[in-house]
Design brief:
GO terms for molecular function: cis-regulatory region sequence-specific DNA binding. It is a single chain. The protein is mainly alpha-helical and 103 residues long. It has one domain: Helix Hairpins. It is built from three helices and no strands. It is rod-shaped and about 65 Å long. The mean pLDDT is 96.
Length: 103
């Protein structure tokens, strides 16, 4: 509803500007979430290589469990929801610009 079909070059320009701003935010959110997921994967692989009764294993497990808690936190879940919303918004804006450009 915020982005109906484009009817003028000025509207097209505004959509492109909005797209750029929203894309930056989307990339920030994705980078944060990707960082958490990549670190979890690294820790999981390291845990598989270290003896379970070692101090190193305990330290890795604590960090792993902390990151799992982070992923369950309301803040992380909100970022996840926001990224999904932004993704849909970006696709819609891109489609509106593309449809206008075809005319």
């Amino acid at each position: 509803r915020l982005y109906p079909p484009i009817s003028s070059p000025g509207t097209r320009q505004r959509y492109k500007e909005d797209f750029g701003a929203e894309l930056r935010r989307y990339k920030e959110l994705c980078a944060h979430m990707d960082g958490v997921n990549e670190r979890l994967a690294q820790l999981g692989a390291q845990l598989d290589q270290v003896p379970e009764d070692s101090a190193q294993y305990q330290a890795l497990a604590e960090e792993y469990n902390h990151l799992k808690d982070v992923k369950r936190s309301p803040e992380y879940q909100e970022k996840k929801r926001e990224s999904k919303t932004l993704r849909n918004k970006l696709f819609h804006i891109k489609r509106m610009v593309s449809d206008y450009d075809k005319l």
